[in-house]
Amino acid sequence: MGSFYLILALIFSLLIAIVALANNETVTVSYIFGQADVSLILLILGSAITGALAMGLFSLFRSIRTAFTFRDLRQQKDDLQKQVKSLEEENLFLQAERNKAVSVPEKVDENEAGPEITEKETPTDLENKKDS
Q: Pseudo-torsion of CA 104, 106, 111, 115, nearest 10°?
């Protein structure tokens, strides 16, 4: 796309040069503080060059502004990536803590719960254990 603009600029410059060469008369240019007689070729070429420089400066300022915006957005992206990584690590830690809490059964105090009855033991077997 850049080469397209370069070719277009060269064609436009060639057209300006042809028009300037066709108009080689002297004209009077009035300034705020006076007047000057200038060749029309110089006036046309000077105006074209001044316009090209003005457009170049505007383009330069836009490029600088875009570069600053890009830098700020890249910094934001890096900060957000760090935040995501931190949150992922915290998520893994919390999942590990939750799994650890679920997998470890609570210890029951034997004095409070009383003796456990298994399927093989009958109430009479338990009474015999108490007596012995």
A: -70
